[in-house]
Every structure is written in C-alpha cells, then in structure tokens.
C-alpha cells in the first residue's frame, strides 16, 4: 500500500520522539490537533510499518561492541538473517568498502558483551575478516530527534514525562526482563495491558517504569522508515583521535542532528559514528564539517550504508519499513 507522508505525520513523530509515551491528548495539544486525529494518523503510520516505538537501555548504561565483517557475497544473505535474528544484536547494516557488514551488540555490562562475542555470535569462521570495537556508553543517536517542534510546544509534552530524581532505586536487572521485552515491541503499550501481560498490578508497573526512567536506566525511542521520513542515506565513519579526547569528541559529535549512533570505542580507531545524509554529494560536505569542527581528528574510514536490515530490534524491509521485531534482549543467555 502506497502512502505519502504528510507534514502532520512528521509533527506527530517528532512529538513522540520528544515523549514516546505521551498521551494522545497532550500530543494533540502540542500540535493544535484533536486527540482523535493524532491517534488515527499514528495508527495508520504504525500499521503501515512507517513508524514505531520501543524501549532502550539508557545511553549511559549501554555497553556493547560494534562488529565489522568482511563477508563473501554468496554468504551475505544467510549471515544477515542470522544477525537479524540474534536478540543481543540490536542493529544490522550493509555498507560499501572493505568491510561490507556491521552489527551492534548491546548489554548491561562488559561481561555480557564479552560472553556474547565468545559464546553467542553466529559462526563467523567462514567470513574473510572481523573487527570488534567495544564501547561502554552510547553518546548519540539512541533517542534522536527530527527537531521540528518549537520548544514552547514541547512543554505540553514534558508535563507528562516521568522526570528525574536524585533518589536511589534498584538498578535495571534481569528481574525487569519481561517488562523490558514487552515494551520493546511497543513502548506505548498502556499500563493496564502491561500489568495484565505480566500478571502484576498497574501500580507496580507504573512505579517500576518511573524508577527506571527517573534513574536513567532506560529510555524510550520513536523511530521511522528513514527513507520516507528521515535522511534516507547513512554514513559509517571511523575516527581516530588522541586517546584523552575521544570521549569529549564523541559526546559533541553525538549531539549533531544527523547522528544516528556514536560511541567512543576501544580499537585501532576510537570513535564509531553513523550519520544520516540527504544524498551522496553530502558525504564530502559532512566529512569536511567533521574535520573542520574537530581538527585534531583523523578520518580513518568512511562508508556509505547501502541497507539497514535491523534498527534497535526492528526488522526492516528494503524500503526501511518495519516488517517485524526481534526484541533487543540484553540478558539473553
């Protein structure tokens, strides 16, 4: 079914990127639309696979590894399918260049990352080369924004957010696994539905979600079929920086509007950056901006992302639309 994304759809998505669990009433108030109109348009986008919501580890709590793979073409689709179905691999893509596949593994701690590398990955012995770059936090792209709504309009959404607190709560653990996985498929699932699915009271679910969000253990995402909504092309960049500057530069780079993933890593290059692009001629402009803004860096490699097959657990078709979900499970064992 063909559907042309409307400017109103862009605004609704931007509102949900600001506050993915906001009520339809608050989204409507922020956009000057009725609650019914907002809900109807979102349901259409969601049904067509053009937009969706999910839960994520908070960027500051995200341990992981970027895996770059050089794979022969006759094994490519088979390996892509294996990577897509792996619950601890949350993102998978194809690129130009010497390494033609990449995936990103996530966990709540470094031991989980190492265990996945050694015990849980698909058989990579028949690939030509593999490179692992471990990170201890994500500095950009987990909760990226289109940035359409004026700050004043966003205030209607913020009053419905959970907020943050200095109180100490139990950290995210495997006890929260069922709740996390339930929201991985749809972060807008009502509290009553979550409670029924988990055989818990609504108040227990509400309180635990508040605790996890207020203590920066989790965040929520609203993502889209990027060729229809967002910057349609992707750029995969490896950056080499002075060691003591890598975290600072990764944080600054992570704040760029075009950033879809950024992390300081332990590897021969020490920043992995994924950015969105409008068109191929923008590659040179983006790299020039990068090296001008950060003259101390060296761009070690740059590749065009030709296809994303999975983004934070959401399986994508060739047009970038959702075709299913393998919920990201940071505790899979």
TrEMBL record:
GO terms for biological process: response to amino acid. Residues 7-46, 173-211 form the HTH asnC-type domain. GO terms for cellular component: cytosol. The keyword Transport does not apply. SUPFAM superfamilies: Dimeric alpha+beta barrel, Winged helix' DNA-binding domain. It holds the Pfam family HTH_AsnC-type. One of its GO terms (molecular function) is sequence-specific DNA binding. Keywords: DNA-binding, Transcription, Transcription regulation. InterPro entries: AsnC-type_HTH_dom (IPR000485), Dimeric_a/b-barrel (IPR011008), Tscrpt_reg_AsnC-like (IPR019888), WH-like_DNA-bd_sf (IPR036388), WH_DNA-bd_sf (IPR036390). This is DNA-binding transcriptional regulator AsnC. It comes from Glutamicibacter creatinolyticus.
């Amino acid at each position: 079914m063909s559907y042309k994304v409307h400017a109103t759809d862009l605004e609704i998505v931007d509102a949900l990127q600001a506050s993915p669990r906001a009520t339809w009433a608050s989204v409507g108030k922020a956009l000057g639309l009725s609650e019914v109109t907002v809900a109807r348009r979102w349901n259409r986008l969601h049904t067509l696979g053009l937009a969706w919501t999910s839960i994520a580890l908070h960027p500051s709590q995200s341990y992981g590894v970027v895996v770059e793979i050089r794979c022969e073409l006759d094994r490519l689709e088979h390996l892509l399918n294996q990577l897509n179905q792996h619950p601890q691999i949350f993102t998978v893509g194809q690129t130009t260049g010497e390494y033609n596949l990449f995936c990103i593994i996530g966990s709540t701690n470094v031991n989980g990352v190492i265990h996945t590398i050694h015990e849980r990955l698909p058989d990579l012995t028949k690939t030509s080369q593999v490179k692992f770059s471990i990170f201890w936090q994500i500095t950009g792209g987990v909760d990226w924004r289109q940035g359409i709504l004026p700050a004043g309009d966003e205030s209607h959404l913020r009053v419905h957010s959970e907020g943050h607190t200095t109180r100490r709560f139990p950290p995210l653990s495997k006890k929260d696994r069922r709740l996390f996985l339930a929201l991985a498929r749809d972060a807008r699932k009502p509290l009553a539905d979550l409670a029924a699915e988990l055989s818990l009271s609504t108040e227990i679910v509400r309180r635990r979600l508040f605790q996890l969000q207020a203590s920066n253990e989790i965040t929520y995402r609203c993502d889209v079929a990027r060729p229809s909504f967002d910057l349609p092309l992707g750029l995969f960049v490896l950056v080499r920086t002075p060691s003591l500057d890598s975290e600072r530069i990764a944080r600054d780079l992570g704040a760029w509007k075009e950033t879809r993933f950024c992390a300081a890593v332990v590897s021969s290059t020490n920043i992995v950056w994924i950015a969105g692009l409008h068109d191929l001629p923008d590659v040179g402009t983006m790299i020039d901006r990068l090296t001008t803004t950060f003259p101390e860096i060296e761009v070690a490699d740059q590749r065009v992302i030709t296809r994303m097959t999975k983004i934070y657990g959401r399986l994508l078709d060739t047009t970038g639309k959702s075709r299913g979900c393998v919920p990201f499970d940071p505790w899979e064992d």
